[in-house]
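Hi V.,

You were right to ask for the full record rather than a summary. Here it is.
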Amino acid sequence: MAILKLGDQSFSVAPFHLGKLEQAADLIDMVNTSLASRDGSWKALTASYRPIMAIASIGLSDTDGPKTADELLGLANLKDAEAIFLFFTEVLAEAGLQPAGESVTVAEAGSALPSS
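Predicted structure:
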C-alpha cells in the first residue's frame, strides 16, 4: 500500500487495479507533464499537488473512506511536499508504472523546492 503522509495524518491507499488506473490516467498524465516542465517556480511545483490529491482520493474511496482532493489539500503544507511526491511514485510503482520521461525522479522533484 502507498502511504500519503500529510502533517500528523497518514492515509493508506491500496494498489490501483485497472479500473482505478483508468480513472486516474488523465491525472497521472497531468502530474508527469507538470514534473517534466519544471522551471523552478512555485507555480510549476504546486501545479502537481491537486492532481496527486485527486489520485489519492480515487484510491481512498476503497480504504479510508471518501476524501476529496480539496480535503486532502487542506491537510497538506509545504513540509509535506516530499511525502506527496513519494506517494505518487509509490502509487505508480505498485501499479507497475513509473514517472514519464525525466531523469529526475518524482521523489527528487519534491525535495527540490524552489527558494523564496
